[in-house]
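Table S2 (text version). Query chain:
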Amino acid sequence: MTSGALGLRRREKPFDTALREVLKTLLSAVCGFRKPSACAREKRMEIEKTPLEGLLVLKPKVFEDTRGFFFESYNAAEFARAGIHTLWVQDNHALSVRDTLRGLHFQRGPGQPKLVRCTLGVIWDVAVDIRPDSPTLGQWHGMDLSAENKLMLLIPGGFAHGYAVLSDKAEVQYKCGTLYDPKLEDQIQWNNPDLAVRWPVVSPILSQRDLSAQSFKEYLKSVGKQ
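Corresponding structure-token output:
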């Protein structure tokens, strides 16, 4: 999806451009100039495809013993070998109580890639394909993310994202591939019948912003699909 498809084009600020160049240099140093033998090691991340192009489930290898556990939640070289070249530029951390539902959120333009995991409790995490030219436009994928299963969901740009809290409390941490831009922030109704996401909560706790979100039909109209 391109920014032109949405009728909006995000102008990168000089700081954004400079930051991305620095990150590119660092990523190249880690993944591009090291000999294969120097990077060779046991695979520490399983990556599974979903029915939605670009949406991936990541399962890290967890090392456990009587002291607890250890795993790599992100490794630039490991991701690059798997064909994931997103430059992560922002980390977010949210705490929510049971039955909180956040979503469905997205950024217009090229979108905001996310790498989502739950580090306390359990959530039902949902990604909806809203790419105007995608053959799976309007389809969604949902799954449990929890501190116990340690799974991560890699969401490319062009998706709307939301989650519902299924435990007393849940902490969600996620990396972002673009900086948050309030001018591009938008949302779609969490319970829109055209999407028919099957949420495992009956009476969710919602923000005022999510209560006043647009319908999926209104979104489609805004991107020239109706």
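Notes on Table S2: The CA atoms of residues 23 and 87 lie 7 Å apart. The radius of gyration is 18 Å.
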